[in-house]
Amino acid sequence: MPNLSSVRPVKPRTISRLSEERVRILGKALSAAENGHHSKAAKLFEHVAKEMQGPDQDIATDAVSMKANAVLVMGKMEFGRNRELAESFLDEALNFIDEALKPDPYWADYVSLEEKIRRFVHSEFGCRITRQGGLWKISCIDVVNYVF
User: Fold this and answer.
1) Which of 5, 16, 27, 64 has the highest local Cβ count within 10 Å?
2) Phi, psi (deg, nearest 5) at residue 6
3) 131 φ/ψ angles, rounded to the nearest 5 degrees
4) Please, are residues 29 and 41 in contact by the beta-carbon 8 Å criterion?
5) Is position 146 within any domain?
6) pLDDT tens string 119-143
7) CATH number at residue 79
8) pTM score, two decimals?
9) Count of the separate structural domains present in the chain
10) 33-84 pLDDT tens trace
């Protein structure tokens, strides 16, 4: 069974293009998350996400990965107190990671984070069935149709 404490925030795909100040703040956020200071980490990740908004479209697009980190650590913080709120935060993290994957759908850190969160959500909260575009979708199970 996946463990939420083992799900770690990610560094942005565009980290090599961030200013030294943003990298420093990101380092503080990652350290706070690692040490269980979830509220502080969330605020720092949000700050980095806000700072990433600007003229460089790649960096601005990648800011959603920092938003994913922020809601991930909030989900971790709430998991022991309010499972429904924790689930909501984790769902939001998945939405942000999906957005972060649009420019590069194979970015390993993001793909790995998404998979870990999905496995945890599935094992803790069960399988979700949703209706999208007139079709029912079961996002927790990969189904393959074989033609014989």
Assistant:
1) 64
2) -90, -5
3) -110, 120
4) yes
5) no
6) 898 888 877 677 777 887 666 555 4
7) 1.25.40
8) 0.85
9) 1
10) 999 999 999 999 999 999 999 899 999 999 999 999 999 999 999 998 999 9
